[in-house]
Amino acid sequence: MHTARPDQSHWQREMSFVGSPKSGATLLRGDPVVRDIKQWCLCEGHNDEVEPALAVLFFNTDSAAEHYAQIKAHVAAQAGVGYWAYEMPPGASSAEVKSQIQRLNQDKNIHGILIQRPLPQHLDELKIMASVNQLKNIEEYCDGQTANIVADAFSRLLSKYARLDLARQSTIHIAGFGNMITDGFISHMRHHYPHVSVTPHLPRNGDKTHQFNEYPNEQQHSLLVTELHHGPGYITTEKVPSGVITIVDLGFYTTANGTIVGDVDHKVYEETGLAIAPTPGIETLAISAAQL
């Protein structure tokens, strides 16, 4: 186990977005919302008696896992929230993981707990997540109410750009699964948005055997949320399903020079008529929203 608070300038550099600023697509960046949340945290979120602290338990299974943990540390520092990272070996037993979680549950100096996913395959995710004290489980407890922080960040972002009402009127296609798209995320989205379809893969245009559009009587506008794990830039212009006008990219990859990229190919950003929330916008926003 160790604590982590990386150099901020290093992470400001690594979190830079790969894509042309002169592209035709409208960029839905998380920065404006993150600034609002940070300002609230600094002005209203603290009191003289409590110094809020976030504990993140993660498994260093690959470079992306460590990058995620360091981004959380960066955002927490910006919001003035204490940050403690607990690294578990990928082969840790269920009993060992639950024991560490129990110590965090009982630590009065820890106010929020985040279990970074995906978990190693040998662990039962439902049982591990259930062992977190509900009042400290920030992934499913936001803004005083039970909620999924990624779905909460999704709504905050669209609201900032006046696209929330359009999302509620559109079909939202969720493609993939992993660290951000979880069962909790899908459940929250289905509860708060009337038209949600879920598929593990990105359907091909013209594939009539795949029921990608579950709501043919609705408006043709649709929104695509992806976390596909097929490599950076997997979604090319030709692979964007017809009718999609907004893409929320939750893919997460690190290039050789340390830049973070997502599922969407850079050529897609040249397309007019699209709005794209690039990586790591939602991820950073979700971590910030967890401070509320």
From TrEMBL:
- Keywords noted in UniProt: Hydrolase, Multifunctional enzyme, NADP, Oxidoreductase
The pathway this protein participates in, as annotated, is: One-carbon metabolism; tetrahydrofolate interconversion
Gene3D superfamilies according to UniProt: Leucine Dehydrogenase, chain A, domain 1, NAD(P)-binding Rossmann-like Domain
- One GO BP annotation of this record: tetrahydrofolate interconversion
Superkingdom in the source lineage: Eukaryota
Q: Name one GO cellular component term.
A: cytosol
Does this entry carry the keyword Lipoprotein? no
**Any one Gene Ontology molecular-function term assigned to this protein's record:** methylenetetrahydrofolate dehydrogenase (NADP+) activity
Does the keyword Hydrolase belong to this entry? yes
Report domain Tetrahydrofolate dehydrogenase/cyclohydrolase catalytic positions: 31-139
Report the PANTHER family cross-referenced here.
Answer: C-1-TETRAHYDROFOLATE SYNTHASE, CYTOPLASMIC, C-1-TETRAHYDROFOLATE SYNTHASE, CYTOPLASMIC-RELATED
Q: Which protein are we looking at?
A: Tetrahydrofolate dehydrogenase/cyclohydrolase catalytic domain-containing protein
Name its species.
Answer: Penicillium fimorum
Question: What lineage is on file?
Answer: Eukaryota, Fungi, Dikarya, Ascomycota, Pezizomycotina
